[in-house]
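I need you to check the entry underneath: sequence plus fold tokens. Let me know what the token row says about the fold.

>
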Amino acid sequence: MIFDPSMPTSQIQATVDAIANQQLSNQFGAQRYALLFKPGTMDPPPSPSPSRWGYYTSVAGLGALPTDVAINGHIDVTTSATPGLLRRSQ
């Protein structure tokens, strides 16, 4: 999924939540998602509540430089010990 800073935050949030809800119990499923953000500023950040990031979900900015994509606020990723090996936040 590719998100643009001009998109309504509510639309981005609904997509992020739908993916999180699907992936929460999908430890051995085949679905994989990348949440990609075009250059710009996201304010407030789209984020499921802590511990709601599902399995096999990557988050990345698409700018040429790390400073090209700004997510104001924070994104929390919380996992349990063993499944934590399969989850990541980039």
The mean pLDDT is 76.
